[in-house]
């Protein structure tokens, strides 16, 4: 009993310190446009975008057991919706971004109705097929450039901000803000009773159902949330790029394969995993990108080595070896699940 109380106090103290450090880092990153160069701002924006995508995929697969290889469907959908809303409907890009998220959440409902009938590898293949349907469909829309794509008109770009520096800073702040929102949302979801239900479903669906957990409703909740937020991320990605094409928008390597790599090497099923994974990924990319195809081969070798030596990822290995947990959540949730 005394040991349990000590663990609760210790984990609470660790959590407070981690939150304080995270808050301090966010403040420093907020002022990046004043201390970082333009190239650094774009790199930081890309890191935050991949961290957001990885955290959402981790929530979907690591905590809910829904292994999707078709999240590029919502990235591309968000990008094309941004272009359509701004070019044809006359929306300001800053307003079109949250609207795209609403449409992304809505379109995920009929998709979920179809793919939730599948299990395991069939579910993964089903998500990829949906993404390909999206890619082929948008390639037929000639008003948005068809197969070759299109660029955002200059007038729309200038409506974001009066000059290029301010526009890039504004997009950077939006990406940073959305990343913080996603990380906080994931943390709060996992601290709730729904978080306990999600981990129970992932570990044993049959036992979860016997405990009275509504499996379909829990999975649908996560799928809609991740779909809507991924759509917003897609809109931000292509607002930054200012150009879109079907192959770029629905690229499985850029928006799904690399994201899975980040989560797997960082540690699937942990909040810290995507953070560690994205740092490792960008360190490898910035160091080895000039090597061409050898870079991709080395990424594959790193992924295989980590999966063999540390099946729970780098953070899982560090956490279990040194008994470190920045956000002491998983242990508490597992304990509550066992008690139930």
Per DSSP E runs of 2 or more residues, the count of β-strands stands at 2
The average pLDDT value, as a whole number, equals 87
Give me the secondary-structure category.
mainly alpha
Instruction: Report the C-alpha radius of gyration, rounded.
Output: 20 Å
Q: What's the tally of helices?
A: 17
Strand content: under 5%
Main pleated sheet: 2 strands, antiparallel
Please estimate the helix content: over 70%
Main sheet: strand order = 1-2
Oligomeric state of the chains?
Answer: single chain
Outline: globular
Taking pLDDT < 50 over at least 5 consecutive residues as the criterion, the unreliable ranges are 1-10
Distance between the termini: 18 Å
Element-by-element helix/strand order? HHHHHHEHHHHHEHHHHHH
Give me a quick take on this structure.
The protein is mainly alpha-helical and 340 residues long.
Structural notes for this entry:
With 340 residues, this protein is an all-alpha fold. It has a domain at 19-251. Helix content is 78%, strand content 1%. It is built from 17 helices and 2 strands. It has helices at 2-30, 32-35, 38-62, 72-87, 93-115, 121-138, 154-158, 164-191, 193-203, 205-210, 215-241, 246-249, 252-266, 272-288, 293-309, 313-322, 330-339; strands at residues 150-151, 243-244. The protein has a two-stranded antiparallel ribbon with strand order 1-2. The protein is globular, with a radius of gyration of 20 Å.
